[in-house]
Design a protein that fits this description.
5-stranded mixed beta sheet, alpha+beta, elongated, 38% helix, 248 residues
């Protein structure tokens, strides 16, 4: 009987040891899985955090720069001489003369336009921003309405990609006009809007100048963004000098 009890005790001890060993292995496996998961999360978070930190640093550096020092110099911007054209066939007899029905597709003779017929629904406060991406820019026909209201539009083509230095420079330039009544908008020129800009030109400044009786469109085609060029252009062609200057 004593031997039998001894065997039972030994059997129980062996079972307990096996259970303990199995539990140890399970804990080790769980810790290994947890460790791998932590490493994966860290691997995903570190690049995102670094990108965010770098982006915020870049924005801080640009925010502390003067407008004229953002982007390339005026000489390096490779801008052509300013072009002006007198609108032909546009009404000079009142606010509604250049309006067409909302939804009407307008083909503009210039890429990009500096004047022309447009939709009557101008930008509302909730839609207004100084920098637009290709994803959130309002319809072209509404941006032309903004030109009539005295806005200077700084167009960039699809060679300037999000995240590039030129893109960041344009964002920083737009930020300099944020909260002001200067009415400057940086907007994308999409391939679906019309023909591409001339060779080597990727940024275009436009303004619809003049009163209801004497008007002209103004263009300046540049190769790269230049805060110095844009500052000079905006000063020369203020929002008050337009068919409906001072409107939103």
């Amino acid at each position: 009987m004593a031997k039998k009890n001894q065997k039972n005790v030994e059997r129980r001890e062996m079972v307990e040891k096996m259970r303990a060993e199995q539990a140890r292995k399970e804990r080790a496996r769980s810790m290994l899985i947890l460790g791998v998961c932590v490493l994966i999360v860290i691997g995903l978070l570190v690049p995102a955090i670094w990108s965010l930190v770098k982006s915020n640093h870049d924005k801080s550096v640009l925010a502390n720069k003067s407008l004229s020092s953002i982007g390339v110099s005026a000489s390096a911007a490779a801008c052509d001489k300013t072009i002006t054209k007198t609108p032909a066939g546009l009404s000079r007899s009142g606010v509604n003369g250049n309006h067409v029905a909302i939804g009407t597709t307008i083909t503009y003779p210039d890429s990009p336009p500096a004047f022309g017929q447009h939709w009557p629904n101008y930008l509302q406060a909730s839609e207004y921003r100084n920098f637009y991406s290709p994803q959130d820019r309002p319809e072209l026909e509404r941006m032309v309405h903004s030109l009539e209201h005295g806005h200077t539009l700084i167009w960039y083509d699809d060679t300037i990609k999000a995240g590039s230095q030129a893109y960041k420079d344009l964002q920083a330039i737009a930020d300099k006009y944020s909260g002001t009544t200067t009415y400057v908008n940086v907007v994308p020129w999409k391939p679906t809007d019309g023909p591409a800009f001339p060779a080597g030109k990727h940024v275009v400044l436009t303004h619809w100048e003049g009163s209801s009786s004497t008007q002209q469109g103004v263009w300046e085609y540049c190769g790269q963004p230049s805060g110095a060029v844009i500052s000079s252009f905006v000063t020369k062609y203020p929002n008050s000098d337009s068919p409906e200057g001072g409107a939103p």
